[in-house]
Structure formats: structure tokens, C-alpha cells
Design goal:
The protein contains nine helices and 14 strands. The chain has helices spanning about 30-50, 110-120, 150-155, 165-180, 205-215, 225-230, 235, 245-260, 275-285, and strands at about 50-60, 75, 80, 85-90, 95-100, 130-135, 140-145, 185-190, 215-220, 265, 290-295, 305-310, 320, 325. The strands form three sheets. It has a six-stranded mixed sheet, with helices on both faces. Strands 4-11-1-13 form a four-stranded antiparallel sheet. Helix 5 (about 205-215) packs parallel to helix 8 (about 245-260) and helix 6 packs antiparallel against helix 8. It is globular.
């Protein structure tokens, strides 16, 4: 099976600086070298074994429940309660992959997509970084990880929308290659009409690598808007000619499952001209998520899928978090389990 490859991958330094205990005099060079190695081993060990879970807590009628303490949260893995070792009330730095559909079907609204994408990037927090990926029948990394958006307008202006929508291929590439080595909080925002019509990877293959990437996937999908208008404006332009409406229902269910399994969600604009509002919703959610981390009490490295349940002690709280993850494994990737 042909695999698409993204060439540019950012090298990530794991962990953060751990505080040094004061000493009356500087350590000898040999001792400093040994201490440094011990610290690096500790940082890497903690980071690799930590299971991090972004959690969104909303009120039933909408709006976020803020300022909850760590004591309000409980996390269970396969029914066993876990000790929370990391807790953050405010949005932590996030790597955001912006994945834009540039197939022929989005050509009429590309101007709106460009404008809203640039505005979203301009409003990112100082510690956030983004990467820009486009896809049609091919997936391309247009901008690698960084904060500098001065090239964004020129990059988006150079794009010409054409060809089909290989959506599953695009998600597979981003999760497997663009997010490779990234240990920080990760999110993917996909702009698409939601119809895959030519990917070389299957939906299940794509879903498997998406879950393993531990990135939250948000899909800005026009499946519903397109379905409603297929007999009218879109049909006149012959963009979706001879496509049964049942395919839109099936595509929508597939997107909903993808976002549920990764802790994200599907957002439905009537047109990409509403992207300002949609982007703002995603931005607000990322900024108002709690982040909890634990080291699993199950030390077996069998690569199995483990269920996560997060409970919050707050009246009528609506809790959203990814439902599980794959445990570490020493097995080759081809032999890893994919049953959930």
C-alpha cells in the first residue's frame, strides 16, 4: 500500500527543567555530568510513562465550568482508579496541526478559509505552535512547526483547489509523521466537506493511528450543509453530481467516531464563511481544558487498548475526554493490537 510521507519533522526535547537543590559549593565536573545524566533519565522516564488526558467540563446549557481543583477529578483506567500526578487548570501549550482540504469542492470558499485560518493563527497563545498541511489527492506539509506566521498568507495564496478528497490519507500522514516525536498536548483541526473519495489507507487504519497519536481531532465539516443543499446550489454547480445522499450520512458518522475516539468533536458551519466563529470555538475549548496526568498502575507493556473514564465532582457537569489509549509495547508496530 502506498504511504504518503511528510519530510520535515521537528526534534523535540522531552520534559522540563527540574529544580536543583542549593549546595554550598559547585560540584566537580565529573559529578555535574553524572547528576545531569540522572536527571535526564528521570525526566524522560516520567514523560514517557505519563498518560495525559485533556478534559473539557461544560455546563448542561453550554459554557465551561472553571476553577475546579484537582480533588474534584477522578480518573479510572479499565475500572481501576489512578493517582493523578499532574494537574493543570489552564490551557497548556499546544501543538496544533491545521489541515486544509484543497480539493475542487472547496474552491468557491477558499477565500474565506484563507482569511479565517490566518486570523486563527494570529490569535494563538505565545507558547502554542502550529503546522500547516494541505490535502487533495496528495498530502503536503506546507509549513512546519513554529510560531512565525509571516509566510502564511503567501503560502495559502499559492494554493489552487482541485482534484478529489483523500481525507483518511491526510489524517494518517499528520498522525504518523507530522506529530511524530511530539510529546506536548496535540490537536488537529481539519477543514473539509467531509467526504473521502480515494484514500489509499482504510478508515480503520486511519482511526488506529489517530488514537495512537493521542492528538485531539476537531473536524470542521460541511457534510450536513452539503447534504441539505445538494439539490440546490451545489447541484447546479455539479460539484457533487451523482453522489447518493446516504454517503453524507455515512461520512458524518465516520467523522463523529474519529473525533469521539480522540477527544475532539465535529463542528458544522453552514459555509466556510463562518470559520471565524468555528475557529473561535476550538480556541476557547483548548484554552479552557483541564489537563490531568497519571502513571498507569498497569505496568504490563502489551500494547493493549485501555479504557479511560474521567469523573468530575461538580453538579450537572458534562465531561468530555478521550475514552482510551494504547499502552506502551515492545512489539513491532505491525504486531500491535488494534482491537478496542
Amino acid at each position: 500500500m502506498k504511504r504518503l510521507t511528510v519530510l520535515a519533522i521537528l526534534t523535540l526535547l522531552l520534559g522540563r527543567s527540574w529544580p536543583q537543590q542549593p549546595t554550598p559549593k559547585p560540584a566537580a565536573p565529573e559529578q555535574r555530568s553524572k547528576d545531569q545524566k540522572d536527571q535526564e533519565g528521570l525526566k524522560i522516564g516520567v514523560e514517557v510513562n505519563m498518560v495525559t488526558v485533556p478534559v473539557t467540563v461544560r455546563k448542561p446549557g453550554g459554557g465551561f465550568i472553571k476553577e475546579l481543583s484537582q480533588k474534584a477529578f477522578r480518573v479510572l483506567e479499565d475500572g481501576e482508579e489512578q493517582e493523578i500526578l499532574f494537574f493543570a487548570q489552564e490551557g497548556v501549550p499546544t501543538r496544533i496541526a491545521i489541515v486544509l482540504d484543497i480539493s475542487g469542492s472547496v474552491r468557491p470558499e477558499w477565500g474565506s478559509i484563507k482569511f479565517s485560518t490566518k486570523k486563527f493563527v494570529d490569535n494563538l497563545k505565545a507558547d502554542d505552535e502550529f503546522a500547516l498541511v494541505t490535502f487533495n489527492t496528495e498530502t503536503r506539509l506546507k509549513m512546519d512547526w513554529g510560531r512565525d506566521a509571516h509566510r502564511l498568507d503567501a503560502v495559502l495564496t499559492s494554493v489552487y483547489c482541485k482534484d478529489n478528497t483523500n481525507l483518511w490519507d491526510a489524517v494518517w500522514v499528520v498522525c504518523n509523521d507530522v506529530f511524530k516525536g511530539i510529546k506536548e498536548k496535540k490537536a488537529m483541526i481539519i477543514m473539509s466537506d467531509g467526504l473521502d473519495n480515494g484514500s489509499s489507507v482504510s478508515y480503520n487504519e486511519m482511526l488506529d493511528v489517530a488514537i495512537r497519536s493521542e492528538a485531539m481531532v476537531y473536524v470542521v465539516s460541511k457534510t450536513e450543509a452539503v447534504r441539505q443543499s445538494i439539490m440546490y446550489e451545489m447541484a447546479k454547480e455539479r460539484v457533487y453530481e451523482n453522489i447518493p445522499q446516504e454517503l453524507f450520512v455515512s461520512a458524518d458518522l465516520a467523522l463523529r467516531k474519529l473525533t469521539y475516539e480522540t477527544g475532539g468533536r465535529v463542528l458544522y458551519p453552514n459555509s466556510f464563511g463562518q470559520l471565524d466563529n468555528i475557529y473561535a470555538q476550538v480556541d476557547e475549548e483548548l484554552r479552557n481544558q483541564y489537563t490531568i496526568g497519571y502513571v498507569s498502575s498497569n505496568k504490563v507493556k502489551d500494547g493493549s487498548y485501555r479504557r479511560i473514564q474521567v469523573a468530575v465532582d461538580a453538579a450537572k457537569a458534562v465531561v468530555s475526554a478521550r475514552p482510551g489509549y494504547y499502552a506502551p509495547s515492545d512489539l513491532p508496530h505491525s504486531k500491535l493490537p488494534s482491537q478496542r
